[in-house]
Structure formats: structure tokens, C-alpha cells
Design goal:
By secondary structure, this protein is mostly helical. It is built from 3 helices and 2 strands, in the order αβαβα. The chain has a two-stranded parallel sheet. It is globular, with a radius of gyration of 13 Å.
């Protein structure tokens, strides 16, 4: 989360995509860093335990959210 917000504050689009189990922790970090409105992309399964075909399906499903997150960022000035 910290790295993503650092990139965003520098004007470089970035997005956090993580397993749903880590979303609460990620959002807590975003709030702590002053970006409570940050929206991360939640993935349904840990990629490390997924097969190649499962990863392909997960990425295809997540792609709209990833693209939306990359182009609709605001509020990162607070993190600078």
C-alpha cells in the first residue's frame, strides 16, 4: 500500500490488488497514511496457490476494476 501511494503521489498511476483477506489491512494502512477513500481491487484467491488458468480467469475478472482504479485516482496530495 505504501509503495502504491508513493507512486500515486509522484503522479505515476498504480493500484493495489490483493486477496480479500488482506483488504481490511490494506484499507487500514491507507487510512493511516491519510488516504481513507483509497479503493483497492480485491481478488478472490491468493495467486500463489492458483493454477495458470485460475490466474488468467482472476485477472480477466479483475481487469475492469484495475483499469478504473488506474484512471480515477484523486486525493493523493494528502500523502505527499
Amino acid at each position: 500500500m505504501h509503495d502504491c501511494l508513493t507512486l500515486e503521489a509522484a503522479g505515476k498511476p498504480a493500484v493495489v490488488a490483493c486477496n480479500r483477506r488482506f483488504a481490511t489491512s490494506g484499507m487500514a494502512t491507507a487510512r493511516m497514511l491519510g488516504v481513507p477513500e483509497y479503493e483497492l481491487v480485491k481478488l478472490p484467491k491468493l495467486l500463489i496457490s492458483a493454477t495458470d488458468s485460475e490466474i488468467e480467469s482472476i485477472v480477466e475478472d479483475a481487469l475492469p476494476g484495475l483499469l478504473k482504479a488506474l484512471v480515477q485516482r484523486t486525493g493523493f496530495e494528502a500523502f505527499e
